[in-house]
Amino acid sequence: MSSEAPTGAAVPRAKRKPTILSRIVRRIIIWIYAWKGWKIEGGLPKHLKKYVIAGAPHTSNWDFVFFTGATEKEGVHPNFMGKHTLFQGIMRNFMFDMGGIPIDRTRRANAVEQVAEEFDKRNELALVIAVEGTRSSDGKWKSGFYNIARAAGVPIVPAYADNDTMTIGFGEPLIPTGNYGEDLLKLAEWFRSKLPDYERFKVLEQQARDIIAGKNDV
After folding, report:
1. What is the secondary structure of 62-77 as a DSSP string?
2. Between β-strands 167-170 and 156-162, what pairing exists: parallel, antiparallel or unpaired?
3. Residue 159 belongs to what H/E stretch?
4. Would you call 148 helix, strand, or coil by DSSP?
5. pLDDT tens across 150-187, in order?
6. C-alpha triplet 41, 45, 47: angle, nearest 5°
7. Pick from 80, 9, 19, 71: which is nearest to 46 by CA?
8. Model pTM?
């Protein structure tokens, strides 16, 4: 095995100041979050240092801004996954400072394994994942967030955003049991308790029930 550091390795923040751009962008995000009047229901677990935040629904590019603002309000610097090519050149340190974790699709280790490695190396990591994958989702969730949490041995913290009431809410941590359908149903029931008439969450609940019934394995 080569002893060379991977090309996407971060320069430890303890050895340098965050970039000026990252400090400006973070301040702008926090200002926009406060200016819009968003509020938090529940809170992130104070006793946990590592977890996956399963965020839904994903309906706008503004989701990142408001989730980042809410987590900052909770005293947490969130992390996110990005293509390793975004962590090159002049953008490299900025992406790391903003919480980015580079995923190299050319590596033998897949994305789940790469993120699990990051969890293992760090003392703190709150990974935010838009669990629907894309804004055009019909409400069904991708299983990547669950596989990452299982591989890393960390809990899942559900989080929802209600644009009508400008509320971001966090639920109780869920320890993945390995029974994806049952665990997904628990998450779906929590999301539906917050927005019972939201169509995407109805789809999510049906997805979980179909998995439990053996009609769907993803």
Report:
1. THHHHHHHHHHHTT--
2. antiparallel
3. strand 156-162
4. helix
5. 999 999 999 999 988 999 999 999 999 999 999 999 99
6. 155
7. 71
8. 0.87
